[in-house]
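Late entry, iron/sulfur cluster complex.
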Amino acid sequence: MVDMNFQRELLKWYQDNKRELAFRKEKDAYKIWISEIMAQQTRIEAMLPYFERFMEACPNMESLAKCEEEKLNKLWQGLGYYSRARNLKKCAMQCMQEYAGQLPRTKKELEKLPGIGPYTAGAIASIAYNERVSAIDGNVNRVFSRLYNIHDDLRKSAGKKKIAEKVEASLPDASCISDYNQALMELGALVCTVGKPKCACCPIQAYCQAYQYADPSKLPVQSKLKQRRIEEKTIYILAHAHKISIKKRVQEGLLHNLYGFDEQLPEAYSLKIPLSSYTHVFSHVEWHMDAWLVRVDWEDETFHTIDEIKQFYAIPSAFMTFFKQIEAMHL
Ligand code: SF4
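Prediction complete; structure with ligand written out below:
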């Protein structure tokens, strides 16, 4: 059993050590939602400039619901996993229709919206609305697996359930739920870190069972993910005069509806120059790509100058290496 006094120590530490994150300080549900979705695959410090840019373009639910897809993708460029951006817009449209332009106030209702899972719903409901609910992300899983010395596999439902029960049982009153959930996330991000945690300066060290009886660096236990599938691809960047061709990827699947380059060599061309090779890693697939610059003597509406592309079109990170190479060539 862990002594619940750890909460008091944790909250005290949080007051003195928390990072001043504007989107959390204001307790604005809209800002908390956007920041949580952006932070899913990106470190908070790295995502801050994206967040500011996004807020300028879409400061509220209505502007997001009306935001054109191209503009939204451009705002998301560099963050990857564009389905998150598409879900933000879908969710905003639903909130405009069903919740008078607001996010609903309970975890249960929030979880029904597109792109909002249990963690994000818990974070919004507890931080913005003080609902007494959990928000269990990777940081919280790690802290609790160590605090309670839990060796179950956290990729399996039994392990997840065990952590969730411990977190639920630890929730304080609604009056400090917002700070408590943020304090757990912050402890995981700053002190109880992946690999070797900084136990010497941990505010809850006296309560931590892994610190006392095990090796915290070996927790949490997580079985290996399935090996990624490898796909070999050849990319052809068609060029004419000072323009290159970019095309919307119409087929379903990865990078659907985003811009990319040709994957078939045209029948007629005047020159073919090898560019670099690049491997892009998605969660379940790796694209091993070789690229070529292909000079053609025609152009159509898919051809744009480099400056036009930079200004108006979102090139996914998977193709960015090739795009930058072309840019450096000053066609
Ligand atoms: S004592 Fe170490 S392992 Fe335990 S919660 Fe603190 S940082 Fe994590």
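The chain is about 45% helix and 15% strand. Will revisit in the morning.
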